[in-house]
Amino acid sequence: MKTYRQVFSELDRAALIPFFVIGDPDADTSLAVVKTAIDAGADVLELGIPFSDPIADGPTIQKADIRALASGMTVKKALEFVRAVKDYKDVPIGLLMYYNLVYQYGTERFFSDFHRAGVNSVLIADLSIDDADEIIAPATSAGLDTVFMVTPNTNTDRMKVIASKTTGFIYAVSLLGVTGSRERLSDPVEELISKLKKMTSVPVCVGFGISKAEHAATIAAAGADGVIIGSRIVKIIEENLHDKENCLAEISAFLSGVKSAMENRGKTGTH
Amino acid sequence: MKYSGRFGDYGGFYVPEVLIPVLEELEGAFYRFYEDGQFAAELGQLSRDYAGRPSPLYHAKRFSEHVGFNVYLKREDLLHGGAHKVNNTLGQGLLAKYMGKTKLIAETGAGQHGLATAMIGALFGMETKIFMGVTDIERQSVNVHKMGLCGAEVIAVEGGTGTLKDAINDALRYWTAHVADTFYLFGSACGPHPYPTIVKHFQCCIGKETREQCLEKIGKLPDMVVACVGGGSNALGIFNEFLEDENVKLIGVEAGGRGLSGGRHAATLVAGRVGILHGAKAYLLQDDEGQVYETESVSAGLDYPAVGPEHCLLKDSGRAEYVAAEDDEVLDAFELLTRTEGILPALESAHALAYLMSQKDKLPGETVAVVNLSGRGDKDVSIVEKRRPKK
Predict the structure, then answer these.
(1) Do B15-47+84-199 and B52-82+204-387 have matching folds?
(2) Count of A-B CB contacts under 8 Å
(3) Residue B48, CA distances (Å) to B38, B41, B81, B368 in order
(4) Residue A46 falls in the annotated catalytic set
């Protein structure tokens, strides 16, 4: 199974990391979408298991959660979904989800079942570093890497603690707010990347609000090791609910565009 | 964070990283002003002259005759705004002012907390936004108009079932993006630390007064204290003062909705399982995998799938007992209090009265039961008309 370490050390540019909600709008289409993203050059996948109350997500991903739940996606089926993705290609998978689903499944069992299915890390949006001890031991013993979030208002001491507990990558949130496409990148993002890169050798991937190829290129140029794009591509699914072919074509074209923009700008940051 | 915000294993602060610094700032400010003399004096003066504290303890003799024992009502319904909510919004609003915040946001179910926040926004000249589910906006339109008159903007929340849970989701999301100048005035003793502690602190005046009034009027402590429980702030507010008095039974009454067996209710402590929602570990109404259920209750203020963490601990320790009253029993209680005493109780508070009706002729005649009449029922008249049309 491919590790984050392998991916980040092999690449000479920032990793392309698309995010999808598993089962959006239904399990079959969702799998086709993820395969398309892999074919278009996704280096790592960030996948969400849909939850009834996603407080860290904006309207686009909330709707994706609702579609996925309405189509019958469950935690158990998400496990099958991960296996099917890994059967297609060995791309590292990070789950991004809410604590209650892990807690109800049983934290240890959740981590070991999903690691065996091919997941590399589980980022819990509503579990901060303060309570990380509830998950670090079971995650590590299951063989998972840890991924935690840093936001523009996280203070330096806290960033150091987060970096010290992270083995996979730091998920740097580019703005104060929930997920969702923004017209422009927020000002603090480049500052945040450079601060983190000076502080730690753990890879730094940036997410939230990134909606254009040029955003991704800017973030890559600032030294990020990966660019996470969620709402912008989930929106393509929303806009093409009755045209699967066009949906796949648009996602492919968008991700290819992002990738080539990042390749052209390279990784000229603080390495 | 300085404190863990735990009540046993319940509570905590399960929130996205971006909210941690703001909760930390809030915790720091709360404990700093908690014992600040000027803050206490200003809050005391506003509680008296603006809100109308202390609220009376009233012996409801005709209602008592009907149930066969003594019922006293703690008249929080007489406070400004018509509910206990003003205790908390005055306290937190003043905290916001002392912290230098200029904008308030709040969630609301029945609209009572939204209204109480809008009043305080007007009082302190702060820009106020109230998040309210579309279902609740429809069933509580009078409160929506009142909030608007106070100058607050009511933001319609369409997600989920358009009730309190969805309003909290959107208020949290909005806060995440506006943490610098916005104070989230949380309405109940739930949510992430430090809210359960803050809200209890500002509501425990209810129990303190009740205790004194009982000793003065009856010459002894009550045998039981009964309150409705949604998030649980009015119940904690009156229970807290009696926690050490083991002879005082504490009864929390949850929303049994259309009945527990059909799943259409909001009786979290009675029928839920421990989980994590809105920043806290607590009992939660959820399916096997942890998806949160949609709840149902005739009273918008109790229509919530989680509950304050301290109530979870009180349930587990057995110090408080939690029961459910179904919509029909609640409507009966609403009608009975109105007809015997000329007091319209909020449908939320009518849950507590419904429990007393269920104890009719089962308790000794000298029993003294205090009910926290947490709000007035004017806002519910159209709902009662709809559910109980006059023949």
Answers:
(1) yes
(2) 105
(3) 15, 11, 14, 27
(4) yes
